[in-house]
Amino acid sequence: MADWTRLGLCGVLAALACGCATQPGAPAFSVVGEAELFAPGVVSTDFAEIRLTISPDGRTALWFSRNRPGGAGGYDIWMSRRTGDAWGEAAPVSFNTAGRDFDPAFSADGRYVYFCSDRPGGLGGDDLYRVAVTADGFGAVEHLGAGVNSASNEWAPMLSPDGARLLFSSNRPGGAGRMDLFVAARAGDGFAAAAPVPGGVNTAADEFDSTYLADGTTIIFSRAPDLAADRIDLVFAALTAGAYGAGETLPLGVNDAQADTYGPMLDWSDRQQITFSGRRGGTGDMDLFVVRYRLEGGGR
Length: 300
What we know:
InterPro entries: 6-blade_b-propeller_TolB-like (IPR011042), WD40 (IPR011659). Pfam families: PD40. This is Translocation protein TolB. The chain has about 300 residues and is mostly beta strands. It has one helix and 24 strands. A hairpin with an 8-residue loop joins β23 (about 275-280) and β24 (about 285-295).
């Protein structure tokens, strides 16, 4: 494939000046500039790399791959550390298992990494966990408990910037159908029982892989009628009067007209930037990209 680091579809489609706002009074989202391939040859490779999360100090990058050799299992979380302007050789993290370990997300303070796994000891399917970040690497893995996890699948945990809410997706009963977005409030050192994200954001389609933006309420998430059979796009939704609208699909240049785009995550080292995964003219299968954004207006 071509070795390129920028997406220039259709002249960047008028500089990607689409202002997405799904409800009156909601902030408008726009993309600033072009999406850039992240660390080609080190992080973005010929294998499938998904859901990049960057530590608040900008020195550590985590992501997962479902087919990169050298890990403990088929799905593994990988890490690269930055020295100066260069990202170092990637290596699997110490808390991988022989099962599925995926969807890492740093907390805003950098103290924890939240992630998914089907390792033994869960409640069924893929469950949500966290692991402490230590001076030497990582501490003991903690299951997030029955208020968050269920006998169904839970994916893509993301703690809000203020640490008060855990955003994730699940196909458990109680949603609108298929994968839906859920939120759980912090309760002491754990979380209260999760509930569907309020409003019209959950539909009969698959909604998953969500991230808060810097304001702590606006979200970017992935949607497909059937994520196993249909193209996946990134969607923007804002909170107005306590509820989210159905969302608006992001423009081309972030999304792709033919290929999947998913796994968005706020960059904690630069909160005006998001990361995402795309299957397009990069270096391999699913590659990792970063793009700057702007939120304007709105009033909650």
